[in-house]
Amino acid sequence: MPCWRIFVGLYHNLFNLKFAVISAVFNGALVMAVNGKHGLRVLLMAGLAQAVSSFFSTGVTARLVQHFSPLESVPGSYLLGSCLPAALTLLLSLGAHFLNHTPELLASCLPATAVSFVTSFGTNFITRRGYLRPPNYPN
After folding, report:
1. CA dist., res. 63 & res. 12, Å (int)
2. What is the pTM of this model?
């Protein structure tokens, strides 16, 4: 099997580009708006950093949700498809804030985790209805 096929297969199993782009644009713009009073340089740097972070984390967590959305058990699909991505978000956020020596470690991580839980629920809802599915989604 050629290397590019392996790469494409991994990509389709680990990442959702559509959700990643939506998240990057929305969260990057939100952070830019929040930091607008600190000048153009800070606004752009903060927005870009958030957009890149949101792109990668949402791309992975959205695809993780989509592995659970085909489950026949609706409660199981939503429970696993929301709790596991939220747990992954918590771990990634804890790691990033720990490395940055953020003073309020848990307080900085919990809002992102709560948002991840809610948006994972929404991603599951959208996917179960047939929208924004990856090419290798089971029919």
Report:
1. 8
2. 0.86
Burial class of residue 75 (count of CB atoms within 10 Å of its CB; 0-12, 13-18, 19+): exposed
Q: Which two tokens stand for residue 88?
A: 């992954």
DSSP secondary structure of 19-60 = HHHHHHHHHHHHHHHHTGGG-HHHHHHHHHHHHHHHHHHHHH
- In the block, residue with structure tokens 């089971």: 138
Q: What is the pLDDT of residues 77-135, one digit of tens each?
A: 999 999 999 999 899 888 888 887 777 888 878 888 898 999 999 999 999 999 989 88
- Predicted confidence (pLDDT) per residue in 41-67, tens digit: 988 988 898 889 889 999 999 999 999
20 closest CA partner among 58, 47, 63, 66: 58
* Dihedral sign, Cα of residue 51, residue 57, residue 62, residue 63: positive
**Length of the chain, in residues:** 139
- Residue whose token pair is 């804890």: 94
CA angle 85, 89, 92 (to 5 degrees): 135
User: Could you give the dihedral angle defined by the CA atoms of residues 78, 96, 50 and 4, in that order, rounded to the nearest 10 degrees?
Assistant: -70
Residue at token pair 């199993």: 13
